[in-house]
Amino acid sequence: MSVTKSKISSIFFQYSIPSVLGMLAISSASIVDGFFIGNYVGDIGLAAINISFPVFSFLFGFALMLSVGSSVVSGKLIGEEKIHDASVVFSKTIITITLFSFFMCTVLFLNIETLLNFFGANRELIPIAIEYLSIMLIFIPFLMIGVVLDYFVRVDNRPNLAFMALLLSSLINVILDWFMIVYLQKGIFGAALATGISQLALLVILLPHFFSKKAILQFVKPRGSYTQIIKACYNGTSEFVNEMSVGITTLIFNYVMIQNFGIEGIAAFTVINYLLLIGIMISFGISDSLQPIISKNFGAKKYLRINEFIKLAFISTSLVGVVMIFLILLLPETLANIFLEDNNLDTKQIVLNFTKFIWIVFIFDGLNLVISAYLTAIHKPLASMLIALSRSLVLPVIFILTLPFLFGDSGIFMAIPLAEAFSFVIAVFLFKKYKPKKIA
Hints:
It comes from Arcobacter arenosus. The longest helix is centred in the N-terminal third of the chain and has 37 residues, at 43-79. With 440 residues, this protein is an all-alpha fold. The protein contains 17 helices and no strands.
């Protein structure tokens, strides 16, 4: 099917369904991680994962920035029928992510304890967090390369392959979680090893595509400077800012939670993140699938088609939000029990207090993600980054530092929902400024 010519709804669902299923595979694997760790390692295992999260945010954010920025450029070149130039962008991107990922993970590996102290880990948390993070850093380069390959596979008209890779990787993770944590009783070490092996699987599944006859993009000799990749990174800056912002916000939330509630507070915040992950990853899958579609139609100057794709994305993410709101309001205790043992009463109560406010996020998050993805695809990175910064860093930090003075502990729980709501106002303003008929 031609992205620039075929029926709009068919193209939308051909790209969005595999993307959503892929995101569900990723989120379900993370949720299964949380289930096994919460029930077989305990609160301290959940807290150790969350205290390590800023490291993953930085590395995954860089991979996303490079993936999104470069794949959008490559998609536009394919839309303009400049296939060799698109392959040059692809080849340079793979070289860049490979060198960066192995270098950064080595540096971080050699400074794990310093990092964890900086993140606010106490003496009880540091040993188990080191055990988890040291294994993860060995495998994260393969995840970063796999993320880049995933984006380019979709640009190369193979969204189903991208989905299958994410699904198989997640299934491997789930099976190995049970084997390592439950059967072999390897605890947090087993959880990290299971996740690491599944990340390596993602690379193994996707890489052969680019050596097949079905591939439009090929590995070619990367001629010229890497200025083009730097510019592509700039276009994907909003994704990096978004991930880094989540990491920084998590760092600040961890500090506030441990000061107010102890380790139980960090564990509860981890559970809330798992609940948010389900709905946000579905909406992210929908919005993310727009980028190769819109970038190609943007290159082909099909602005009316872009508008129709955005409408479908708005409707889809809004429906996801409604479902998540009903689940959180009707079944909060059931959802909390998935990750917590019966004797974790203090942690469970904090989770339930959080759910009284967190459902508000799902009114706005999908629409914010769609607008941000659209702006990235039409090469408006600053506008996209503004949305990412407001919803993931600036507003959450402002609210987490001010609302507790006005509303006590409830102010902590209100920070993320209010940040998403205020960000929606900014997103609507930017969308009206750069809507499809105005870029024509």
